[in-house]
Amino acid sequence: MKKTISLMLVLCLFLFSLCGCNNGGKSSEPDHSAEEIIDSILTNIENVESLYLECETDSSMSVMGSKVDSKSTVVSEVNIKEKVQYISMVMETLGNTVKTECYIKENANGADVYLNANGNWIKQTAIIPEKVAELGISTDSYQMMSLYFEMLKDNCEISETTADGRKCYVFTGKIDAGEEILEKSSLGNTLHQLIESGLSQEQIEEIISNVGEFEVTLYVDKETLLPTQFEVDITEATQNIMTGLADVLGESGEIKVEKNVAISKYSQYNEIGEITIPEEVLNAEEVALY
User: Fold this and answer.
1) Closest Cα partner for 119 from 276, 281, 9, 275?
2) How confident is the model at residue 95 (pLDDT cuts 50, 70, 90)?
3) Do residues 177 and 245 make contact, with C-beta atoms less than 8 angstroms apart?
4) Using CB atoms within 10 A of its CB, is residue 147 exposed (0-12), middle (13-18) or buried (19+)?
5) What is the pLDDT of residues 11-23, one digit of tens each?
6) What pLDDT, on the 0 to 100 scale, is given for residue 121?
7) Beta strands in 81-212 (DSSP E)
């Protein structure tokens, strides 16, 4: 059962590549079709050069009566044009609070990652492009939003509302948590970790075959036609993964996922300037992080 709990925590960390938002105001019907609006949104996303992201995640589950709660807050400045990002994260789990800072700089050879662990900066340089993609740490990960919009084109409800003082389109729908979503999101890295932990490809396929759907709500500024907030509830999908994981491991015991949600806000589009990595960070000790 310890192995199950360990793998569950790994899964929870990466399920939050899916993001979210808060609602406000009264809804009304839009004057354009979802497909027309989404086509314009996709074009605008392609032209984004930088942005600011705030994300909160909240997970609660129990295994044979042992409760595991996890919360995290992530703040990120992303310069897509220059391929540099700064990330600050606070995670609370099992009664412990962990604070982490990270710089990621991409280049022709892949990426350099600088991580503040226990007050000390460490780094791994020249991480190959294939590993960067597997880890989901590229600045291009923001383009994942485009995939969600594409999948909602013919399968969503659309309305208008006011959120945080802005007039917004609201898209609500369910997305199939199939192999495409899992591989293209950061969860693809989790699947690789599960394989490295000893699970076979067949076992992984069995786990994800019955994941099902998850519900998303996306808010888009009517004026800029860019996403402002995004909410995802993957409680049921996580429950299906946990149940499948226990089944392939042959371990018994009730696993109950009570909550697994993420809430994100996007702002400061094309306003983030140069992200400078401090000299002391650049001179950090080289280690093998990944």
Assistant:
1) 281
2) confident
3) no
4) middle
5) 444 443 444 333 3
6) 95
7) 84-93, 96-107, 110-117, 120-127, 157-163, 166-176
Closest Cα partner for 106 from 277, 287, 286?
A: 277
pTM: 0.80
For the record, the structure tokens of 229 come out as 């907030």
Tokens of 214: 């998850």
Contacts of 219 (CB under 8 A, 6+ apart): 21, 23, 161, 163, 168, 169, 170, 227, 228, 229, 230
Q: What is the pLDDT of residues 60-79, one digit of tens each?
A: 988 777 888 889 999 999 99
Cα 125 off chain centre by: 23
pLDDT band at 223 (very low <50, low <70, confident <90, very high): very high
Cβ neighbours of 15 (radius 10 Å): 24
- Measure the CA angle with vertex 161, ends 157 and 164; round to 5°: 130
CB of 225 closer than 8 Å to CB of 37: yes
User: Is the CB of residue 270 less than 8 Å from the CB of residue 49?
Assistant: yes
Q: In the prediction, which pLDDT does 25 show?
A: 42
Q: Is the Cβ–Cβ distance between 186 and 135 less than 8 Å?
A: yes
Amino acid letter, 267: S
Integer Cα distance of 22 and 264 in angstroms: 9
Return d(Cα 207, Cα 5) in angstroms, integer.
15
CA 20 to chain centre: 10
Q: What is the DSSP string of 49-113?
A: -EEEEEEEEEEEEEETTEEEEEEEEEEEEEETTTTEEEEEEEEEETTEEEEEEEEEEEETTEEEE
Digit-coded pLDDT (tens) for 20-67: 333 344 444 555 788 899 999 999 999 999 999 999 999 898 877 788
pLDDT score for 43: 93
